[in-house]
Specification:
The chain has seven helices and eight strands; from the N terminus they run ααααααββββαββββ. The protein is an alpha+beta fold and 215 residues long. The strands form two sheets. The protein has a five-stranded mixed sheet with strand order 2-1-6-7-4. A three-stranded antiparallel sheet has the order 3-5-8. The longest helix is centred in the first third of the chain and has 14 residues. The two termini are 33 Å apart.
């Protein structure tokens, strides 16, 4: 079954397992097809089989270490990585054992997504904020909300580290890998290396931007 799967199935209800044991037991090929179609991921029959196999082998809907292993060996399809990676990113631990370089390489390999759904990439530059120490200011995770960045600068640094501050940057559209706007955070995942990153107090020095748009 390819991406021309019957449109009548797009709106079908998909049951998401709540435990690893249930993942192995409950996930069917129809579930996988439903997730892939709902997320607008271009796929083939073989890629559906691949995704189903990964879930059943790992018992995990966001198997980050398996993704890293397969990606490092060139043994995972773009469709499978596009389905799993945004979920793995949202569910990652604060001190992820996966190096930022590996996250970046995997995001570079997949389609642009918003809340896991493949969409056309916006064309305009976006302004984003990050709460971090100076050493970590070039991380992948940025917020569209300066207040959220302030919270991370103040509350989400290493124990007893009081050097976190808010950074601001204008990010070209082709540097943005994904947006995550479900829930409280308004996050974008982006490669900001070599961009002009300033302390928020210097924000006025950055060029004024127009609204985020796909036009």
């Amino acid at each position: 079954m390819t991406n021309q799967y019957a449109a009548a199935n797009v709106g079908r209800k998909v049951v998401v397992p709540s435990t690893l044991k249930e993942s192995r037991k409950m996930v069917t090929r129809a579930d996988v097809e439903g997730w892939v179609i709902r997320n607008r991921i271009v796929h083939t029959d073989m890629e559906i089989d691949e995704i189903e196999d990964i879930i059943k082998r790992t018992g995990n809907l966001a198997p980050i270490f398996e993704l890293v292993r397969l990606f490092s060996r060139g043994e995972i399809s773009r469709a499978a990585l596009t389905l799993f990676l945004p979920r793995a990113w949202v569910g990652r631990e604060a001190n992820s054992q996966v190096p930022v370089e590996t996250w970046r390489a995997m995001f570079e390999h997949i389609a642009y997504t918003e809340d896991g759904v493949v969409l056309p990439r916006p064309r305009r530059t976006v302004r984003a904020y990050r709460g971090a120490t100076e050493a970590n200011r070039e991380g992948l995770s940025w917020s569209l909300d300066p207040g959220q960045a302030e919270y991370f600068a103040r509350e989400r640094q290493a124990p007893r580290d009081r050097t976190g501050q808010v950074w601001v940057v204008n990010i070209p559209a082709d540097r943005v890998f994904a947006r995550v706007v479900e829930g409280m955070e308004k996050e974008i995942v982006a490669d900001v290396r070599d961009l002009r990153i300033l302390r928020v107090e210097q924000e006025a020095q950055l060029p004024t931007l127009r609204w985020w748009s796909r036009r």
